[in-house]
């Protein structure tokens, strides 16, 4: 059995906040005392590695050698494996996992694969749900609505919304609330994880200005609300060690 849980965070459309949600997930698991192994697929420069230089490894998810490295790491029991999939590669990544038998292993209970599929408030983004339909039955699949702007994800058009999203279900859908832009930018300037910013840890770069109590408070509340939604979607139980599930 490939005992290490695998969580893919991705979307084919860009600009929906994949790396932000990955950072949220890493903080969530680390605060729960779970070891994490992180792959950043924004090769060659990386997007996630700036915030987690000690644990994030940059890979090219299109390279067979890197695909093998990722899948073979799932034999190690000690960590949750998280992959931040760059724009345009979610469907392709699921297809390679289908081709090598990983999704079939997941369907048989011999591997644990979860997909956090970020959708944006556009028809192009929502249509991705239909594209990944063939893979959904072989993994734990969650839709993630990341409220990076004032959109309501077509809630006023019930027919259109239900066509793509179905009925709202907290166990199958994760909502990431909107974070005040000034607070988000303040974290970006430090290059720190969100939780490190809240705890006022020293920045890795030259940023050493006093941090606003108000902005730290906004980030803390946003983290708490997002993590509550992660809990409701069963993420903590999904990534629990196999010994704790028995």
Protein model, in words:
With about 250 residues, this protein is an alpha/beta fold. About 40% of the residues lie in helices and about 15% in strands. The chain has helices at about 20-30, 65-70, 90-100, 100-105, 125, 130, 135, 160-165, 180-190, 195-200, 215-230, 235-240, 240-245; strands spanning about 1-10, 35-40, 55-60, 80-85, 110-120, 140-145, 175. Strand 6 (about 140-145), helix 8 and strand 7 (about 175) form a beta-alpha-beta unit. Helix 9 (about 180-190) packs across helix 11 (about 215-230). The two termini are about 15 Å apart. The model has no long low-confidence stretch (mean pLDDT about 85).
Q: Which class best fits the helix and strand makeup? A: alpha/beta
Strand residue content: 15-25%
User: Percent range for helical residues?
Assistant: 40-55%
Uncertain segments are none
What distinguishing features does this structure have?
single chain; 13 helices; alpha/beta; globular; seven-stranded parallel beta sheet; 246 residues
Per-chain topology:
Layout: E1 2-10, H1 18-31, E2 36-40, E3 56-58, H2 64-72, E4 80-84, H3 90-99, H4 102-107, E5 111-119, H5 123-126, H6 128-131, H7 133-136, E6 140-146, H8 158-165, E7 173-176, H9 181-190, H10 194-198, H11 213-232, H12 235-238, H13 242-245
Parallel strand pairs: 1-4, 1-5, 2-3, 2-4, 5-6, 6-7
Helix pairs in contact: 9-11
Short précis:
With 246 residues, the protein is α/β, with parallel strands linked by helices. The chain contains 13 helices and seven strands.
């Amino acid at each position: 059995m490939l005992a290490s849980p695998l969580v893919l965070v991705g979307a084919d459309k860009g600009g929906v906040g994949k790396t932000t949600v990955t950072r949220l997930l890493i903080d969530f698991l680390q605060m729960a005392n779970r070891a994490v192994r992180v792959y950043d697929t924004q090769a060659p420069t990386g997007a996630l590695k700036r915030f987690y230089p000690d644990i994030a490894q940059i890979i090219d998810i299109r390279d067979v050698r890197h695909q093998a490295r990722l899948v073979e790491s799932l034999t190690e029991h000690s960590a949750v494996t998280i992959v931040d999939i760059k724009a345009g590669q979610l469907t392709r990544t699921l297809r390679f996992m289908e081709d090598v038998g990983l999704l079939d292993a997941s369907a048989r209970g011999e591997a644990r694969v979860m997909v956090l599929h970020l959708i944006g408030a556009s028809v192009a983004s929502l249509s991705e749900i239909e594209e990944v339909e063939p893979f959904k039955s072989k993994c734990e699949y969650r839709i993630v609505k990341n409220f990076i702007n004032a959109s309501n994800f077509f809630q006023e058009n019930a027919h259109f919304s239900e066509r793509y999203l179905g009925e709202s279900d907290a166990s199958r859908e994760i909502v990431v609330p909107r974070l005040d832009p000034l607070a988000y930018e303040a974290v970006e300037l430090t290059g720190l994880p969100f939780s490190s910013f809240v705890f006022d840890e020293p920045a890795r770069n030259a940023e050493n200005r006093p941090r606003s109590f108000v902005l730290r408070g906004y980030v803390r509340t946003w983290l708490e609300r997002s993590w509550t939604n992660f809990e409701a979607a069963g993420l903590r139980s999904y990534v629990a060690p196999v010994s704790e599930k028995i």
